[in-house]
Design brief:
With 257 residues, the chain is α/β, with parallel strands linked by helices. The chain has twelve helices and eight strands. The strands form two sheets. Strands 2-1-3-4 form a four-stranded parallel sheet, with helices on both faces. Strands 6-5-7-8 form a four-stranded parallel sheet, with helices on both faces. α6 packs across α11. The longest helix has 13 residues. It is globular and about 50 Å long. About 2% of the residues have low confidence.
């Protein structure tokens, strides 16, 4: 006699109701996944993560060396399962390699899947916020910060000031204190600045966005915040209630309209 075992799948949530998102993180990344679960609705989104080899220091040359690893990494993201988007979670490397080259490498393994990079997401976030003149804060070395300034200028943003913390190891960047991030944002601010960008997916900036916005009275965008905002757009999902920053407030307002 054959016994039929009831399916363990919850009747309240069919698998097709879950939007699956892919994340390609650096081997040394301590921040991106933690930030994601402060924003993504767990009952509606699943985050699937793979990693690429990375060796500090965080210099333009080392960042560019990740380019050949992206296709294989994307190929490891739950093969044959539909993904709403894939994010390469490194701001400075996306600038060095180039948004288009990153997307091409990932789509070689996962054709047709939208690709998110933090700097491109930040440009789109500032456009949504109506911000054209920004202050840039990075934890990087000066030689890694300079290409960031050039990138945003090339994308049509006016970079009024740029502050960097001079760190070379992304694991140290992940341990920067909240007080240091707030102080750096305040130092970078100018009267004519319309918004602040906190660069680097390793930087634990998500938790201080609201505090900086309160102090400066201006929108603040971080790498992980912008990336998650774009991924949620691709998945047609709202963030968790209370997700930080004017960017997610704007998103909530637009969905309600």
């Amino acid at each position: 006699m054959t016994t039929v075992v009831p399916s363990p799948v919850s009747p309240d949530l069919e698998p097709n109701d879950v939007s699956r998102l892919g994340l390609i993180a650096l081997a040394t990344d301590l921040t991106s996944e933690r930030d994601a679960w402060r924003v993504l609705p767990p009952e509606r989104a699943a985050l699937h993560v793979t990693r690429v080899p990375y060796a500090n220091p965080t210099t333009p040359e080392n960042l560019a060396r990740m380019a050949p690893t992206l296709t294989a990494a994307a190929d490891l993201l739950v093969p044959d399962v539909t993904l709403a988007a894939i994010c390469f979670s490194c701001t400075a490397a996306s600038v060095e390699i180039g948004d288009d080259a990153v997307a091409e490498a990932i789509r070689t393994a996962r054709p047709g899947v939208p690709v998110v990079t933090p700097p491109d997401a930040a440009v789109q976030a500032f456009a949504a916020l109506g911000v054209g003149r920004i202050a840039l804060v990075t934890p990087y070395l000066p030689e890694t910060t300079a290409p960031m300034v050039a990138y945003f200028t090339r994308r049509g943003l006016d970079v009024a000031s740029a502050q960097c913390l001079g760190l070379s190891d992304d694991r140290e960047m992940a341990r920067v204190s909240a007080a240091t991030i707030v102080a750096a944002a305040e130092a970078a601010d100018r009267p004519d600045v319309e918004g602040v960008f906190l660069s680097c997916t390793a930087l634990p900036a998500l938790g201080v966005i609201d505090a900086i916005e309160d102090r400066l009275g201006k929108p603040v965008v971080s790498s992980n915040q912008a990336s998650l905002w774009r991924m949620l757009q691709h998945a047609d999902l709202a963030p968790l209630p209370g997700a930080p920053g004017r960017l997610f407030a704007l998103s909530a307002t637009s969905r309600a309209a």
